[in-house]
Structure formats: C-alpha cells, structure tokens
C-alpha cells in the first residue's frame, strides 16, 4: 500500500471508529490555530508544539508535544494514534489511564519518589504505543 493510501485509510478510520479522540483533537487543533500555533505534519498526523517540558498527548489523528521533543516522543504519540484506529470508541479509556498515570508519575517525581517508579513503557498501552511508533513512523 502506498503512503498516501495509508494516510487516507488512517484518516477514514480516525474519523469513524476513532471519532471520539479525533473530535477532541479537532477542537484542540482549532483552539491552537486560533491562538497562533502552527499545525505541522508527522507521517499524515497533524501535530502542534506547545509549551516546554511536559511530554506529549495524542488526540486521535492529532497530537500535541512540548517544544524540542525528540523524534521518539512524536513516534510514541503517533503510535497512540494507531491504537485509536484499532481500539476506536474504547480508546478514551486508554487516554484516561495514560493521562492519570502520567500525572501520578509527575507527582511522585516532584516528591522525590521517582526511583520507586517502573519504566514509562512498563504499562502495556505505553509500551505498545512506543512499539507501533517505531515500526510505522520510522
Ligand atoms: Zn503514551
């Protein structure tokens, strides 16, 4: 399959079975465009760079990362985009688990308890997103 067709299929699935996350992403994208953030393209996904030092978040066919994030972060967030077209309407559950875990980890790190934490990718949905990102967005 050529890459244009893959991207078209990705958007078709993102706007149907994966519409919940993509709709949230579209609203976020609109707000970011209004506030003068520049949309960029990463392998067909639309993304924005906002703020500093907070990582990234996937919203279906869209994602947001902080400024200066390495390629691996973009691959990881795009990997969640592929999870979204597989898990569809169930993806918000992963989104909530992932965000809750992220902020819990930040709290631990800020309270000097970072050494108690397992690696970021130890959660199955995070390791899976990283693997998908590396494989399909190299
Ligand atoms: Zn993640």
Can I get a quick summary?
The chain is an alpha+beta fold.
Question: Can you tell me about this structure?
Answer:
The protein is α+β, with helices and mostly antiparallel strands and 138 residues long. It has one domain. Helix content is 57%, strand content 12%. A four-stranded mixed β-sheet has the order 1-2-4-3. Helix 3 crosses helix 5. The longest helix is centred in the last third of the chain and has 20 residues. The structure holds zinc ion (ZN). Zinc ion binds next to helix 3 and helix 5.
Labels describing this entry:
4-stranded mixed beta sheet; 4 strands; globular
Topology:
Layout lengths: L2 H12 L4 H16 L5 E3 L2 E5 L6 E4 L2 E4 L5 H17 L3 H20 L13 H13 L2
Parallel strand pairs: 2-4
Antiparallel strand pairs: 1-2, 3-4
Helix pairs in contact: 3-5
The chain binds zinc ion.
The site of zinc ion (ZN) has 5 residues, from α3 and α5.
Q: Output the structural class.
A: alpha+beta
Bound molecules: zinc ion
Low-confidence parts: none
- Number of domains as seen in the coordinates: 1
Q: Please state roughly what percent of the residues sit in beta strands, choosing from under 5%, 5-15%, 15-25%, 25-35%, 35-45% or over 45%.
A: 5-15%
Which H/E pattern describes the elements?
Answer: HHEEEEHHH
Question: Can you count the beta strands?
Answer: 4
Distance between the termini: 16 Å
Count up the helices: 5
From the spread of the alpha carbons, the general shape counts as globular
What is the rounded Rg? 15 Å
